Amino acid sequence: MDESYYKLLKENYNSKREVRNELISLSSKLYLPKGTEYFFSDIHGEASAFLQLLKSASGNIREKTSINFGDTLLKEEQDRLTELVYNPKEVLHELELKNELTEDFLTINIHRLISLFRFVSTKYAKDYVKEKFGDLFSPIVDELLYTNDSEYNKKTYYDKLVENVVKYGAGKDFIILISTFIQRISVDKLHVVGDIFDRGPAPQVIIDELIGFPNIDIQWGNHDIEWMGAVCGNKALTAACLANAIQYSNFDMLEDGYGINLRPLYEFAMTTYGDDPAEIFMPRVFDKNLYDNINDEVAAKMFKAISIIRYKLDGKLLERNPEFNMDDRNFLRHIDYKNMTYKGVALKDINLPTVDPEDPLRLTEEEKCVISTLQKDFKRSVKLNKHIKFLYENGSLYKVENGSLLFHGCIPLNEDGSFTEIEIKGKKYCGKSLMDKLEKITRDAYYKNDEYSIDFIWYLFNGKYSPIFGKSQFSYFENLFVDDKKLREEVYNPYFSLCNKEEIVDMILDEFEVKSDRRRIINGHVPVKTKKGDSPVKAKGKLYVIDGGISKPYQAKTGIAGYTLVFNSHSVSLAEHSNYESITDEVSSYKPNIREVEVLHPRMLIKDTDEGKTIQERINVLEKLLENYDNL
Length: 632
Description:
The protein is of the alpha/beta class. Helix content is 49%, strand content 10%.
């Protein structure tokens, strides 16, 4: 025993009784059921759908309501109660407008919500539940939650507590608070397996919600890395962020959400491309802007202007990093300006007034001014920098927890199933060593402002062997400029076909030292095309792909609105979400199609989890402290 260590530890415990109390509490906690973990992937800015899924615990709260009130409330009453849990402020406001927010309504529903809160929190220790309370109404909630109201005298006391909450005008606030508690206690741990940004209209709303979540981790996706790199100072990625946002007409997100001033880009686009119809640059509009109602024709010109700047910056970055081996992606160098072809195929748009055929990567003075101004906006946006800091502090390229290996895209493999080696500054990496090296590079870009690392984040976003991209190329130029399927083709890394094999998944799990008897890989990135017969469950249940299409642009391909993986003490289950409207409809009690894919026998307790191992280590230390307490 290290005596000096235990002497320091003893200072935290004033007596042997305090050590015993801690040991009793910790040892008992090991035999509680494990908390419920929720896994989301590829949210892509769809705030309405994501927030509704989070509030409803992917439909689990509706299931708990049915179990708890199945014999006492009709289905319609259960639906109304879960509506209240999901959206308390909205429901109460609507009732106020209709003059239907009566004292009876408040009293009845406070009783029901307390009953539901008791039910969903039964598997957690009292101290853990109380941590969720906060300061507001904490003593009252504590009394209501743990008072035995089956005894006559206690029942009177309990009823009076609720009556006085309503009587003194706190009923609405109390309902909002309890509803939030139910939401929070229903999701013990939240894993976001990449791609919060791009396509959808409101990633900033999603991250604002995630920042307030008490227990969360994030595995970075390529679209997250894009924004992280832009804030680190990579101008090519700044242009990429703007091009992607404008392509989907997400002007509210840029200007109102993050305070990015698009006026310089607008003025440059209208001056340079004012007479250009820019037809191939017409935006894909899935959501209308509330504040920045820029028409499609203007948006197309802005999209073209920032895209040309992007291609130039891409080319410059590739030429100063020849080790990326991506010369084929230096688009403007592969144009025959005499015949206006790209790799032998005719360009669909030949109006390139700012591109000098003799020096195609040279930015005009106006383009330099535009990108420099926009880059400064990215660097000084308070909210954007707060959000990127959150991603760095709570994120990583991969995570291992409770037998699950989480990463966004893939582990690069060769056709024969072996790990692909990638050379970085003269040293080769593969498998776990590659992921560790790339994570260090990503952090060096942000925390050390390392120039090479800032450039390398661009490669992580769309490089051939990037584990969070995992395709031969990102055809953002070809998809616009040429009608040639071969030039547009994006070939997936062999991982995505080989991962159907159990032995390949086992090899990867072994590489990352995942030793649990019940182990699995969970990733997203590639939409599961359910309507074509694709399954999110692969390799005999050892791999789950949970990108099922919450992003609206994907839903025509997938046929559904995404998957959520739920891992509780009884089972691992897939929640299949039928369509976007059913998720975001706030007047229905949303319930997805839930399918158990792993049944856990016996029930998984905290002692069986990584948290349990940490608790057991603490118990071992405290037992030694107790044994030697009098001699220290």
